[in-house]
Amino acid sequence: MWTVVKEGHVILITAHIDDFIIACADRKGLDGFRTALLECFEGTYESEVHTYLGCELLRELEAGKTLLSQKHCAEDVLRTYE
């Protein structure tokens, strides 16, 4: 994970092999950083993230929360060992 500060806003960048997530509380800063990054490197923007590394991401925008869940993995384990 890396951090960058642009115009007073912290941008978080996480990577796993060839999958990256970029996050920032400032949407304008996030969009500008992503655009600049894609101008320098080959890549795609595939919209909002719903799953990453086997985790389901659940966002509660009004509450300012992001939740990670591996419920499906736990259910698979329970079914396997019932």
Number of helices: 2
Class inferred from helices and paired strands: alpha+beta
Q: Tell me, rounded to a whole number, the average pLDDT.
A: 88
Inertia-based shape: elongated
Largest sheet: 3 strands, antiparallel
Write down the domain tally. Answer: 2
Proportion in β-strands: 35-45%
For the largest sheet, list the strands in their spatial order: 1-2-3
Total strands: the figure is 6
Indicate the percent of residues in helices.
Answer: 25-40%
- Could you give the order of the helices and strands? EEEHEEEH
Unreliable sequence segments? none
Taking all Cα atoms into account, the compactness measure Rg is 16 Å
User: End-to-end span in angstroms?
Assistant: 38 Å
Structure, described:
The chain is α+β, with helices and mostly antiparallel strands and 82 residues long. It folds into two domains: 1-47, no CATH class; 49-82, no CATH class. Helix content is 29%, strand content 39%. The chain contains two helices and six strands. The strands form two sheets. The protein has a three-stranded antiparallel beta sheet with strand order 1-2-3, with helices on one face. The protein is elongated. The relative contact order is 0.11.
Primary descriptors:
alpha+beta, 2 domains, 2 helices, 3-stranded antiparallel beta sheet, single chain, 82 residues
